[in-house]
């Protein structure tokens, strides 16, 4: 067996196609429904906010979708990303388990998000779009789309959840460095934002609200389209380059994972690593696949599988997903990228089919795991990624107790260099564990649309 720590694929072995799990699902996804009529939507219904190429990918059931050469050319700035054996963490834990992580923090924006930002910007540019509007939680997606927009000459307007806007000023600075405009959400620039502020003047915002604002802007301007950083099928599709690379790199290491782990907010980095392994499980492999979410926003572990809107303003199509309710307001936390009321329909479907597990952790225990990881491996994880780190450590300690030398693979979806205030709060004892409000959940679920 190789004694290497890092496993690099040469650029000429970078995957040339994204993998589409829709081709292999034992039962198809329930259709998305029109927010007005409640009927299944068609491509024409999505045309006001998405370019045609993205719409085609959203509804495609083709197994492999070619990555355009201009997109692969940009990917080469950081892809293939490294697979790393966490040998020092294994030693610190005293575990017989082998721990590997796919490190997506090497991208220019510091996370996995450019894997979909670049193709979305490319397809919009191809179709003559001038501007993109989007939302962002922690800022990873906003900075990634800002980066992609700068490469293809597109204006980018980002509605950033207000609690994160205030917590993470350097994410805003990064977006502005790439040429984007960053706006705290809810804002007074849109009707959706004004409506929220009229009811809740001190609102910290949420991804659901920020999506409403960005979609409203795209739908009201002919020169603008909307770009989404997670949840939808085409986003999950673009991220599968992570898992496809990881499979080849695990083969280079002479290993095959027993457990695959990723954090889950909207579902994109989880889908990116896990969906290729779901495919192999459907062929007879036996890999445990684990999604990890915050206890303060536990979509998979406490949400209802039902039709719901993707945004608080109820402007988006209704999709069947694990949801806490579009009006549910997750408490503020430093894992802004995981504060979303719903889970990707494809990930939710995989959960319903029993093809994955889900668990949740409080943010202080995730930060403790992140610090332990940083002191062993040297990389400071993003708060979102710390959930996957926590689960990987838990699995490694289980192996220690059981005396099993299992192989664990997790996605380190981004670095935490822009999140050091969160670490400062953790070290000073200011970081608390927001409590999940069951009454607020019940109230939000009462407002679910009567669909499906």
From TrEMBL:
Domain Tryptophan synthase beta chain-like PALP per the UniProt entry, residue ranges: 77-414
Function description: The beta subunit is responsible for the synthesis of L-tryptophan from indole and L-serine.
HAMAP family in alphabetical order: Trp_synth_beta (MF_00133)
PTM sites of type N6-(pyridoxal phosphate)lysine: 113
Source species: Phaeospirillum tilakii
Annotated protein name in UniProt: Tryptophan synthase beta chain
Keywords linked to the UniProt accession: Amino-acid biosynthesis, Aromatic amino acid biosynthesis, Lyase, Pyridoxal phosphate, Tryptophan biosynthesis
Enzyme Commission (EC) number: 4.2.1.20
Family: Belongs to the TrpB family.
Record's keyword annotation contains Amino-acid biosynthesis: yes
Pathway(s) served: Amino-acid biosynthesis; L-tryptophan biosynthesis; L-tryptophan from chorismate: step 5/5
Higher taxonomy: Bacteria, Pseudomonadati, Pseudomonadota, Alphaproteobacteria, Rhodospirillales
Superkingdom of the source species: Bacteria
Keyword Cytoplasm: no
Pfam families: PALP
Catalytic activity line of the entry: (1S,2R)-1-C-(indol-3-yl)glycerol 3-phosphate + L-serine = D-glyceraldehyde 3-phosphate + L-tryptophan + H2O
Subunit description: Tetramer of two alpha and two beta chains.
Cofactor: pyridoxal 5'-phosphate
Enzyme class: lyase
């Amino acid at each position: 067996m190789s004694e290497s720590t890092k496993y690099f694929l040469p650029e000429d072995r970078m995957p040339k196609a994204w993998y589409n799990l829709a081709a292999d699902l034992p039962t198809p996804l329930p259709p998305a429904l029109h927010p007005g009529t409640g009927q299944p939507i068609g491509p024409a219904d999505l045309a006001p906010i998405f370019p045609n190429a993205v719409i085609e990918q959203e509804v495609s059931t083709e197994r492999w979708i070619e990555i355009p050469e201009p997109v692969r050319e940009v990917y080469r700035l950081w892809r293939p990303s490294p697979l790393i054996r966490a040998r020092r963490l294994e030693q610190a834990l005293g575990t017989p388990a082998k721990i590997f992580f796919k490190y997506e923090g090497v991208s220019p924006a510091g996370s996995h998000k450019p894997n979909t930002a670049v193709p979305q910007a490319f397809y919009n540019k191809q179709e003559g779009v001038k501007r993109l509007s989007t939302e962002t939680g922690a800022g990873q997606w906003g900075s990634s789309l800002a980066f992609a927009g700068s490469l293809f000459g597109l204006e980018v307007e980002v509605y950033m959840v207000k609690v994160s806007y205030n917590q993470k000023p350097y994410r805003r600075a990064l977006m502005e460095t790439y040429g984007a405009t960053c706006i705290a959400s809810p804002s007074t620039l849109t009707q959706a934002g004004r409506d929220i502020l009229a009811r809740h003047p001190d609102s910290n915002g949420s991804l659901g609200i920020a999506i409403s604002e960005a979609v409203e802007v795209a739908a009201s301007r002919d020169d603008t389209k909307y770009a989404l950083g997670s949840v939808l099928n085409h986003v999950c599709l673009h991220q599968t380059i992570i898992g496809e690379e990881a499979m080849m790199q695990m083969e280079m290491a002479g290993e095959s994972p027993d457990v695959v782990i990723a954090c889950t907010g909207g579902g994109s980095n989880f889908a990116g690593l896990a969906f290729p392994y779901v495919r192999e499980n459907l062929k007879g492999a036996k890999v445990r696949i684990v999604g990890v979410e915050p206890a303060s926003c536990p979509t998979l572990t406490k949400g209802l599988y039902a039709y719901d809107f993707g945004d608080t303003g109820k402007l988006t199509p209704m999709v069947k997903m694990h949801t806490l309710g579009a009006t549910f307001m997750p408490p503020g936390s430093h894992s802004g990228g995981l504060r979303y009321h719903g889970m990707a329909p494809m990930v939710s479907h995989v959960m319903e089919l029993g093809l994955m597990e889900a668990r949740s952790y409080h943010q202080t225990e995730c930060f403790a795991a992140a610090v332990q990881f940083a002191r062993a491996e040297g990389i400071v994880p993003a708060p979102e990624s710390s959930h996957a780190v926590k689960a990987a450590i838990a699995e490694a300690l289980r192996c220690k107790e059981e005396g099993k030398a299992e192989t664990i693979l997790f996605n380190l979806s981004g670095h935490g260099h822009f999140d050091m205030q969160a670490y400062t709060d953790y070290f000073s004892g200011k970081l608390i564990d927001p409590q999940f409000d069951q009454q607020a959940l019940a109230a939000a679920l009462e407002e679910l649309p009567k669909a499906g």
